[in-house]
Specification:
Helix content: 10-25%
CATH class: Mainly Beta
Radius of gyration: 15 Å
CATH architecture: Sandwich
Strand content: 35-45%
Oligomer: single chain
Order of helices and strands: HEEEEEEEE
Number of strands: 8
Number of domains: 1
Largest sheet: 4 strands, mixed
Number of helices: 1
Strand order of the largest sheet: 1-3-7-5
Distance between the termini: 40 Å
CATH topology: Jelly Rolls
Structural class: mainly beta
Length: about 130
């Protein structure tokens, strides 16, 4: 039992450290009548920026990122604080689509594979 608690605590600490990394955190709000948002940003080397958005279980979320140098990537942390399959940290995702399983907040964490990055992030929920 202590091992499960230790692993859970370690995971929570790593997640917290990732969310507090340099960069910014912002809540995404879609314009009335829209199911998506197009966001632009820039990162310095080693920074991550986090976008938080709410979704209902059963909705389909699609995320795409592009950058001039092709080095902007993301990962998605689900409402259960676990990464979504196919968009886990280290997968260097540039495109993801899937059905979310739970109501709650989802975090799209943007980073760069090398150097800094200027990017365009497209998120939709339907």
């Amino acid at each position: 039992m202590w091992l499960v608690r230790f692993v859970t605590l370690a995971f929570c600490l790593l997640l917290t450290a990732a969310l507090l990394a340099e960069g910014f955190t912002t809540r995404v709000r879609f314009q009335q009548g829209s199911s998506g948002a197009r966001l632009q940003g820039a990162l310095a080397r080693g920074e991550e920026s986090t976008y938080i958005l709410g979704a209902a279980g059963g909705q389909t979320m699609a995320v795409t990122i592009s950058s001039v140098e092709g080095n902007a990537v993301f990962h998605i942390i689900g409402s259960s604080a676990k990464p979504l399959a196919g968009a886990e940290p280290g997968k260097d995702a540039t495109r993801w689509q899937g059905q979310v399983q739970r109501d709650g907040d989802y975090r799209v964490v943007v980073g760069a594979t090398r150097g800094g990055a200027e990017y365009t992030l497209q998120i939709s929920i339907k």
